[in-house]
Automatic annotation (TrEMBL):
Gene Ontology biological process terms from the UniProt entry: lipid metabolic process
Lineage, highest ranks first: Eukaryota, Fungi, Dikarya, Basidiomycota, Agaricomycotina
The keyword Membrane is assigned to this record: yes
Transmembrane stretches, start-end: 12-31, 38-57, 63-82, 198-216, 270-291, 303-324, 336-358
Pfam families: MBOAT_2
Protein family membership: Belongs to the wax synthase family.
GO molecular-function term, one example from the UniProt record: O-acyltransferase activity
Protein name per Swiss-Prot or TrEMBL: Wax synthase domain-containing protein
Subcellular localization, as worded in the UniProt entry: Membrane
Residues in Wax synthase domain copies: 222-308
Flavoprotein listed as a keyword: no
Length: 391
C-alpha cells in the first residue's frame, strides 16, 4: 500500500457519508422550495469536512472519496444556495415546474437531477457533450454496444497497465516524469490519459448497463464521458470538449453567478468570460485539493493548486495567439497542419506542467494500486502470468 500521512486519523464513516452525499443532497432537490434548505448544505459541509480527516488506509480510495466530498459541497452550493432547482430547472419536454407536484413525482425528479452530473436529458445539458444515443435504440442494442465498449476498454487498460508497470515514472519508488527523456514524456502523458479514460469508460459502461437493464434509465440518458481526442487541438477545447464534463454544472453555475449577479457583467463580454474561466478552474482547484488532502492528510504535498491555477493563464495566452492569427487572415475551420501545431502545443504544455501534479500521487503508488489492472488477460493468455499486483 502507498505511504501517506494517514496514520492516527479516524476511520472512514459510512453513516456520515451516506447522510451527506446520499441523503442531504438528494433531499435538497426533493423538498419543496423553502427558506430553510440552506441547513441541508451546512450539514453537507460539516459532514464532508469531518470525512476529509478520516481514512480508509487506501490512498486511491481516499482520493476518490475526497473528490466526492468536495463535489457534494460544490453541487450543494449550486443547487441549494444559487439555484431553486424545482422552479428553474427542467427536464427536456417538461412544461411545468415540479415544485407543486406530489412527493412521489418530486422524488423521481430530484433523484434524476442528483444522478445527472452533466445534465444529460435536461434543458441545461451542455451543447458540447457527445451526441446522446438515438431514442430509437432498443435496450438490447444499447447493452450489446456498451458491452463491446467495456470489452475494448478492458483490453486498452490491460495494454496500458503493462506499459505503466514497466515505467519508472509510474512507480512508487520511481523517478519524476520530468526526468524521463523528452520523447518518452509524451508517451507517458498519453499513457496516463488512455489509462484514465479506459478505466472511467469501463465504470461508466458497467453502470449504464446495470441502470438500463434494471429499467432505472433509458439508453438516451447515457452519453460517452469523454469527447474526441481529435478535438483537443487547443487547451480550451481539451478542457471544454474532450475531457469529462462531470464538474461542468457547478463550475459554470458559480461562474455565471459571480459574473452576472455579483460583478454584473453582461453575458458575452470579455470580463464575464474571464470571470467564468477563472471560477471554473477555482472549482477544480478546490475539488482536487480536497482530494489531495483526503489522501495525503497534508495541504502542501499535492500539486493540484499550481497545476489548475496556471491553466486559465495558458488558455488566455492561447486565445490571444488565435485572435492575432485571425487578424492576419488565418480564419475559418483550422486545417490539418494548424491542428497538428495545436496538438503539439497542447501535448507540450502538459508535458511541462503535468509532472508537478502527478509526481506526488505516483509516490503513493497511485497508478500501481489505483489505475492499473491488477490482472492481465494479455499476459495471461501469452505467458500464463495472470496476476500482476495488489489493490
Amino acid at each position: 500500500m502507498g505511504h501517506t500521512f494517514a496514520e492516527g486519523y479516524p476511520p472512514f464513516s459510512l453513516p456520515i457519508f451516506a447522510f451527506t452525499t446520499l441523503i442531504s443532497l438528494p433531499a435538497s432537490l426533493i423538498v419543496r422550495p423553502n427558506p430553510y434548505r440552506w441547513i441541508l448544505w451546512v450539514s453537507i459541509v460539516v459532514g464532508d469536512a469531518y470525512l476529509a480527516f478520516t481514512t480508509t488506509h487506501h490512498p486511491v480510495v481516499d482520493y476518490f472519496l475526497g473528490s466526492v466530498y468536495a463535489g457534494s459541497i460544490l453541487l450543494g452550493s449550486d443547487y441549494i444556495l444559487l439555484t431553486e432547482p424545482q422552479k428553474e430547472l427542467r427536464l427536456r419536454g417538461q412544461k411545468d415546474a415540479v415544485d407543486s407536484a406530489p412527493l412521489s413525482e418530486r422524488f423521481r425528479w430530484g433523484i434524476r437531477l442528483w444522478s445527472s452530473l452533466r445534465g444529460v436529458g435536461w434543458t441545461h445539458q451542455p451543447n458540447r457533450l457527445c451526441a446522446p444515443v438515438s431514442p430509437e435504440t432498443t435496450r438490447l442494442a444499447f447493452i450489446r454496444r456498451r458491452l463491446l465498449v467495456v470489452a475494448m476498454n478492458v483490453f486498452l487498460l490491460d495494454a496500458m497497465s503493462i506499459y505503466n508497470r514497466a515505467n519508472p515514472a509510474f512507480l512508487g519508488d520511481g523517478i519524476s516524469m520530468a526526468d524521463r527523456p523528452w520523447l518518452l514524456r509524451y508517451v507517458d502523458l498519453l499513457a496516463w490519459v488512455w489509462t484514465s479514460q479506459a478505466q472511467m469508460r469501463i465504470l461508466h459502461g458497467i453502470v449504464s448497463i446495470i441502470s438500463v437493464l434494471s429499467g432505472l434509465s433509458m439508453p438516451r440518458d447515457w452519453v460517452d464521458p469523454f469527447g474526441s481526442l481529435l478535438d483537443a487541438y487547443t487547451l480550451r477545447r481539451l478542457w471544454g470538449r474532450t475531457w469529462h464534463q462531470f464538474v461542468n454544472r457547478f463550475a459554470s453555475s458559480h461562474g455565471k453567478y459571480l459574473a452576472r449577479k455579483v460583478f454584473r457583467f453582461a453575458p458575452g463580454t470579455l470580463a464575464s468570460s474571464l470571470i467564468q474561466l477563472y471560477t471554473s478552474f477555482a472549482m477544480s482547484i478546490f475539488l482536487h485539493m480536497v482530494a489531495d488532502f483526503t489522501m495525503f492528510k497534508r495541504w502542501n504535498v499535492g500539486g493540484s493548486l499550481f497545476f489548475f491555477a496556471i491553466q486559465p493563464f495558458a488558455i488566455i495566452l492561447e486565445t490571444g495567439v488565435i485572435m492575432l492569427a485571425r487578424r492576419f487572415g488565418h480564419s475559418g475551420e483550422p486545417g490539418i497542419w494548424t491542428r497538428l501545431v495545436g496538438y503539439t502545443w497542447v501535448l507540450t504544455w502538459f508535458v511541462l506542467t503535468f509532472p508537478g501534479w502527478f509526481d506526488p500521487m505516483s509516490r503513493v503508488r497511485f497508478m500501481e494500486i489505483g489505475l492499473n489492472m491488477p490482472f492481465s488477460i494479455i499476459l495471461g493468455l501469452w505467458k500464463g502470468d495472470w496476476w500482476q499486483g495488489d489493490v
